[in-house]
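hiii, so i know i said id send this last week but things got crazy w the move. better late than never?? heres the sequnce for the chain we talked about at the cafe, plus the structure i predicted for it. fair warning i was half asleep when i ran it
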Amino acid sequence: MLGGSREYISQKTGHSIKPITKPLVSMREMDEWNGKYIGEHFNSPEGRRLLIEAAFVQAKSDGVTLLEIGEDVWGLGEYFHNDVGELIDTFQEINHRIAPEIELRLQIGLSRHCPVDYLEDCFRRFRGRKEFYSIDLYGDELAQPIENFVSIYRKAADEGLVLKAHVGEWGTARDIVTAVNTLHLDEVQHGIAAAGDEDAMDFLAEKKIRLNITPSSNVLLGRVSDIANHPIAALYRHGIEVTVNSDDVLIFDSDVSKEYLRLYQSGCLTAEELNDIRINSLGGKKA
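okay and structure toks below
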């Protein structure tokens, strides 16, 4: 819900959302930003729909043709009356109205800080709905052990979902290997900590685990010193499949095109390498 166009939101509401411009020192600072600029301003079904609309507007303006987007499981009750059909209809209607040329892939989101039994109860409402493409676990990597989510991910695998989790942005290379082995992940969100561990990189390359990397947010969250020295280069050159992504456009003010351009202009990756990443990114685990 943080991937939208700030211009669209300003036009619709008059509310100005200012991006982060200097590196943060903790996730708490990011939460404070979220509370100030998003928080109660959009904490309603109508506000949630506006954020979804803004995400499609942003994707359309950036030339995106396939958009993987979703909702936190807790949002089902908060904004969609515990009706999965209403949630699906909302995304599909906005998709068709704003950017019908974009292929929609719905994702189920799990907040890592929530109790597992609560997430289990929420997730069961999504089961059997073939409209969903993937599942992702995000939030504080240290909130609770990755093993706690095995049951949910086993059920998600039974549903045929692509299995993802945020790991290795704040944690270690060993955390990445553990998460992949424990949850049988298809893809890792971030995973940049692997660049410091030859064994972890060998493991990811051998297992063909895709790392979906967000360079600018890694810098602004203080995980990487600068774009020129971003570990995406070492990971890619080690034979690991990587993708270049934006991360919460409203916070970090960087779309996918800007990310490619920054990686090129900084000298982190060559034009040929970035084009290879782009072409590989057009594939996926599912047809």
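btw The CA atoms of residues 202 and 270 lie 23 Å apart. thought thatd interest u
miss u guys!!
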